[in-house]
Amino acid sequence: MTQTAAATEPASVLRAARLRPAWIVAGLVAVAGAAVAGLVMGPVSLSPHAVVRQLLGLGSDLEAREIAIVEQIRLPRVVLGLLVGSTLALCGASYQGVFRNPLADPYLLGAAAGAGLGVTIVIVGAADGAATPVAAPVAAFIGALAAVALAYALGASGGGRASTASLILSGVAVASFLTALQTYVQQRNQDTIRQVYSWILGRLSTAGWAEVRLLLPYAVVTWVVLLAHRRVLDVLAVGDDEAAALGLHPHRSRIIVIVAASLGTAAAVSVSGLIAFVGIIVPHTVRLLAGRSHRVVLPLSMLFGGAFLCLADLLARTLSSPAEIPIGVVTAFFGAPFFVLVLRSSRRMGVTA
Amino acid sequence: MIECRGVVVRLGDKLVLDGVDLKVTRGEWVSIVGPNGAGKSTLLRYLTGGVRGEGQVLLEGRCTTELSRRERARLVALVPQAPVVPAGMTVVDYVLLGRTPHIRPLSMEGPHDLDLARDALEHLDLLPFADREVATLSGGERQRVLIARALAQGAPLVLLDEPTTALDVGHQQQVLELVDALRRRHDLTVVTTMHDLTLAGQYAERLVLIDAGRVVVDGPADEVLTEANLASYYGAKVRIIHDGGRPVVLPIREQRAVHDRSS
Fold first, then answer.
1. B180: containing domain
2. Collapsing DSSP states into helix, strand and coil, what is residue B204?
3. CB pairs below 8 Å between A and B: how many?
4. Buried-most residue among A198, A276, B5, B202 (CB within 10 A)?
5. Cβ contacts (< 8 Å) between A248 and chain B: which residues?
């Protein structure tokens, strides 16, 4: 009986979860589309054809002023949007996997609150605001990493190993504590409150390539480490006991993923402020549409996260031009309804997480 | 095949295993029985690295402290009692998780692993289910998927934690027959924890009774499943009858209890 069944079934029937080429193509198209849109649209509209030719070095009929707009103003910003979006989405997907918690986002362990406190102190401390372009990202980076380290130390202090539940709880405690400090410092200094808010709501303003250069090394390390753990995250999904019985070191793997994702989050936050929702909405949308294996979710979250943030930034700087809407407002405003749409139209609503 | 000497495990402040000695030879089927909280599942978790403890365990003559986690996972596979089934994971992907100790760290499974997963699915008549989600399967099907994962792991020693607890009596027999057939075909050594003592006696060659973290009786079913043993370690009132040379454990209810209700 078994033999006839095996004989009639073609060998290709048995297939492991993997990333289908069509999805990679779709992700790359989304990235390219978002990038081109981000380059040609704005106060000065340019021809997509000419911009692409110019960037590919094929020569174009753009004026010198237009070339400057593309290469010195819009390109760094588009690249930064792609980097921040892909890093936040990837870190969010990894956090959700490693904590086996669908609500986990890159800021789960207090990275946002730590970064917020760091930036607030720097903005308040620099009376004239002159020091912030350099000092704010550094302060955000240090604050985010310190908060995660504190949450981890507290979560582990209970009994040797940090369980996911105690980690999440200590993350909540650290975040509340640091947010309280941040609010206090902010309220004591009314004159800088606008600056602090503008940072907290997120923004992708660039001064040339400085922000990209700051973020890129950390982003690349994060990408490499997290993508390498895509199968490990699938194994961890069966819980620590079973993962250990399958030969994994669940505790060690979890620390590596958390450290890498926290590093990436801290770097992204330091150049972009607190951009909400990207780390939750993008991975969940990918899961609902393309599959739940981390070898699908992680790479696709990167591609679509980058494209999503690039488009969100385009809206943020064009909708009420010349003023800018904070990008965090745009991601939440358009991201949340879109996510509800995906959730409703998905046939797999029965199972969450 | 496996030899434990003086295994001690503490969970929090509680001493769960208090010096367990156990020896299982190759090809044997041993059932670990004992009352709730005796430490049966903890012993299996200890053997597969789920909890830490003291004591010495030899696997194929090698001390587990000398083995890496991957090496140990190639020798012992676990079929957990309450498995965590990730949402959306298909049967074939779940069975492929069993290949983890054979796949180089941070790499992906290759065609050879897929072949072995196919073999495991075939042995358990699961090929038609390959693309189904594990979460949508029935209890009996899911138990077969778990056994298929253990089989794909390619370990000569398979530990099954309460493999029949969630199943009706028909599926209990099917699963245990399946385990027995696989044991003979693949020359596996099987250690199960069991609550159903009659089934334990019917399938295992040897029973090990654990109480309060210690092995208290160890021997063939006839010697372990006695009215006296079950009274003192389970606090159970049972009658042992024999069917085809195997003991059948029959719970009995004292007459007084019946009178109490009628009066």
1. 1-60+156-263
2. coil
3. 107
4. A276
5. 69, 100
